[in-house]
Automatic annotation (TrEMBL):
Listed name of the protein: FtsX-like permease family protein
Spans through the membrane: 20-41, 264-287, 318-342, 362-386, 434-455, 656-676, 712-734, 754-772
Keyword tags: Cell membrane, Membrane, Transmembrane, Transmembrane helix
Organism (species): Cupriavidus campinensis
Similarity comment: family membership: Belongs to the ABC-4 integral membrane protein family. LolC/E subfamily.
Domain ABC3 transporter permease C-terminal: 272-390, 662-779
PANTHER family: LIPOPROTEIN-RELEASING SYSTEM TRANSMEMBRANE PROTEIN LOLE
Membrane topology reported for the UniProt record: Multi-pass membrane protein
Origin: domain of life: Bacteria
InterPro entries assigned: ABC3_permease_C (IPR003838), Lipoprotein-release_system (IPR051447)
Pfam families linked: FtsX
Amino acid sequence: MVSARSRMLGRDLWRLRGQVLAAALVVACGITVLVGMQGAWESLVIAQERYYVSHRFADVFASLKRAPAGVADEIRALPGVRGVETRIVRDVTGDVPGFSEPATLRLVSLPAIGMPVANALFLLYGNYPSPAREDEVVASAVFAAANGLKVGSRVTAVLNGRARQLQVVGIGMSPEYVYEVGHGMVFPDNRRFGVLWMGRDALASAFGMEGAFNDVALTLDAKVDPRQVIGPLDRLLARYGSLGAYGREDQLSHRFLTDELGEIGITATYVPALFLAVSSFLLYALLSRLVTVQRAEIGLLKAFGYSGRAVALQYLRFGLATVGVGIAAGIPAGHYFGQLMVALYRQYFHFPQLQAVLSPRALVLAVLASTAAAMVGAGAAVWRAARLPPAEAMRPELPAGFRAGLLDRIGLLRAMPIPLRLILRNLARRPGKAVLSMMGIALAVGLMVVGRFGLDGVNEILALQFGRVQHDDVTLIFTDAQPAGAVFDVVQLPGILRVEGFRVAPVWLRHGHRAKRVELTGLDADSVLHEVVGHTTGRHQVNADGLVISARLAATLHLHVGDRVEVTLMEGRRNTFSLPVTATVDDLLGLGAYVDRLALSRYLGESPAISGVHLRIDTQMAESLYSRLKRLPAISSVIVRRAVLESIGNTLDRTFVISSLVLAGFASVIVAGVVYNNIRIALSERGNELASLRVLGFSLREVATILIGEQALLTAAALPLGIAVGYGLCALLVPVFDRDAFRIPLVLERVTLVFAMVPAACAALVAGLLVLQRLRHLDLVAVLKTRE
């Protein structure tokens, strides 16, 4: 049998169903984000852990010039080393069918017998290369998909000066390339960069590496700190041209995946928190009004023997029921949202199995957080209902007192139309409620700003990198450093308008007990095609007597201008020397360290040399140039400016645009919920007043202006406040995007401000129109009979 209080609760929920639904939708949005993002995070973590374990992802990596195969036994003897996989790894240019530009192919050797000890290959289709064949390869799944390659397809690669047709006999993936990018890349370009696994003997024969290796991956015993192995490994491989060993945390693919997981975790925390904060406000406003309207009912309940605790529980149940509706809608919506997010992440992070999971932890957290929000929102109203004495409750609430405000005293209100005068007076009487309403809308606008912040930041990175730093059309990376005179050979290629060489050498920079492995770039002082330019610090001149370094790198090493930093070269004579820091540059990509090119060659103990060239070309002769570049043996990589921008543009369309639209939709729900609730409560509270105005001859339009105009005024005031809130939230997020690979600056474009305000204004308009329909059907006689 249904109790009287339960019938009362059901009646209240149905009578206030519009407002309950608005508050529940806000709760549902918060839970959707929480469950979806936590589910996506957990899905990635589970896939990562399983893949790393099942396919023995390495703990330590090292690249070198050349070492005899017997060195593997010495590496294996190092304390803590469990497994050693020596390999041959080379980047070469390639020709992919149907694609005019040169592709960069990374060739990785596979053992002739058995599976690799580390970074084992997961074969999706086909077979492993036959030891008896020298032209068979396994292609990475994303490279194959981007270029339409299947088992039996062929690609052309330049192996040590010889163009060779390679047949794809299998398609697979490796834990080493969960995020498949090449050297110096931030965003993947799967059409122009791909990994091919080839038999060890075939690759050794092509590059004269028989009985040798140039890359090694180690797995370690459990609980062994990689730093205990990296030092001894570096010393052991130093005489073989080691470029520096590094741990898993610095491995390119793993670092990108780890950074992304960190961002998901933060998003899954602060966005739901904002939604639940707004839902608390909505519940507070709704229950406060309900307590006011039901004063007589509360008095009767207490008069019939119900305790204050029982009455309080009645209204708390109302809040919990509202949140319960949000939970019931938010959990399945969150699971679906998580599936969409996982589908998006599959385009960037490649696992054998990546399935969306419904996280039990997220479900528990969603229920607890939303319940807490309901209790906080209902708390004040519940306390008020519990303490209301029966005799006082039976009397109508005293009308609010009126005092002339500042606008009345200075006579400004007399010059205003009556509807506007009534609106301003009502706002002045309840400033706290007005501020809370504005904050709810402002939070929603701030969320929309945050949704576009990443896109604006990346656009600023591109504007800096490709508008002020890089002015070249094509960059060529040589397989090995070439004499500086190679510039004159490049000039002979078709369509070349300008050539500038650069030298790159891996180094360790040390300051005190801090150290960082980076690439030291040597540029000509009069370089035009590639300049050292900061986001706010402008252009910096490289020189031979000191280093210009990234501000991020300087902060990592605790360096300031004038400090001396110890430089240890990882190639050439492997000299160690110190240089002063002459300038820091707030660049936005990578950890840059720059010096004069000729000075770098002197430090390396070599004749002037270059690692690559920047080119400005005649675009009408680009096809002819690309055709020649595909056949040049000394080139390992060709980077085309137009292609990089195109790839980044596609990436942004798939990520930031989608995420910003999702956040805009959720934030619009907040605005609509806040405005709808406020107008409905105002209609309930001021029904007698509005009906009186209608009887006195005010038109429906004038009465609607008074009711809806108040919320329109609050919304208009909340929009710029929301921009400020969004700016503050973005400022809090800047450290999250402060990575070694890239830094997103605090930049907001005008279109972002419009994007944030227009949906909010439209949502408020829709909410106002919904309430306007109720105003049209207002029963004047029934309202005027209401007891004051």
